Amino acid sequence: MMETEYFTLHNLSDGVYAAIAKPGKGAWSNAGVVDLGDGLLIFDSFATPSAAQELRIQAEKMTGKKAKYLINSHYHIDHVFGNQVYMDATIISTSLTRKWCKDQNVIHDVSKEQKDMEEYLQNLKNQIDTTTHLPLKNSLSNQYKEMSKVLEDLPYMEIVLPSLTFEKNLVIYGSNRKVELHCLGGGHSPSDTFMYLPAEEIAFMGDLVTEELHLPIYNPEEFISILNNIKQMEVKTVIPGHGGIGTLKLCDTIINYLSYMIGTTKEAHRNKVSLNKFISGFIIPDEYKNWSGTNWLNGNLSTIYNFYVK
């Protein structure tokens, strides 16, 4: 294991590495490095150019190879705001992810963005100071730290879009190994790509899999379907978008979590419970009570509730 300011770098197999983000330091999400033989493939670019630059420096120094490809798993800022570090590489995503990056990740006026982000951070700080719910306080505190790092990099940040897109599957052949990119739909975001190394039985999941996190949900039914399909693959090692290195058991945990959320939502519809009453009366089960990202829970309840409105 190699440790940097932003992440720890773990050797999973010969030429395959997982960069596990340190909380509150500016990486925010996990990333991956794969030595293809004739160049490097990077999976996700972190939340800041500073963290992305450090990963590229360490990866190229360690392998003696140059970054050739960058994969964007989905459009969320903690996975793509480091893209500018790889402008000389081929940046790859699904066409839908590229569209969402183009539409959502826009910096028109840096000074205005700075002011808006400072106000956002002040609002977060007020919430941190007033809440007595420890998991929520911890989640908000981590979000405050991560967004503060984004604010530090904002003056020289440049939005760089993928230059190569695919729809469902793409195979990249290097001189030493092949890498498979799969998009089975959108569960966490409108389009979620994961990277599979068949020979090593390793999967970099983006935010389709996270560890003990109330991750944002886009489509609950498709989310479960995607994870069930992944479980049929030969996978021994799973790198989640957030959290530590694990196995396919992480998929089971997310499936159980989504199933519980869907079940309680359908019950609310059967009993004609309004959205506001459903959210205010929702009780988090003990196994999910200490998960981070509690600040996203109400949004997820609203998304799932509206998903099943007939």
Explained architecture:
With 310 residues, the chain is an alpha/beta fold. The chain has helices at residues 49-63, 77-80, 95-104, 110-130, 134-153, 220-230, 249-270, 275-281, 297-307; strands at residues 2-3, 7-13, 16-21, 31-35, 40-43, 67-71, 90-94, 164-166, 169-173, 178-183, 193-197, 202-204, 237-239. Helix 4 packs antiparallel against helix 5 and helix 6 (220-230) packs antiparallel against helix 7. It has an 8-stranded mixed sheet with strand order 1-2-3-4-5-6-7-8. A 5-stranded mixed sheet has the order 9-10-11-12-13, with no helix packed on it. The chain is built from 9 helices and 13 strands. The mean pLDDT is 97.
SSE diagram, text form:
Blueprint: E1 2-3, E2 7-13, E3 16-21, E4 31-35, E5 40-43, H1 49-63, E6 67-71, H2 77-80, E7 90-94, H3 95-104, H4 110-130, H5 134-153, E8 164-166, E9 169-173, E10 178-183, E11 193-197, E12 202-204, H6 220-230, E13 237-239, H7 249-270, H8 275-281, H9 297-307
Parallel strand pairs: 5-6, 6-7, 7-8, 12-13
Antiparallel strand pairs: 1-2, 2-3, 3-4, 4-5, 9-10, 10-11, 11-12
Helix pairs in contact: 4-5, 6-7
Beta strand count: 13
Summarize the amount of helix as a percent range: 25-40%
Mean pLDDT, to the nearest integer, reads 97
N-to-C order of helices and strands: EEEEEHEHEHHHEEEEEHEHHH
Report the structural category. alpha/beta
Sheet of most strands: 8 strands, mixed
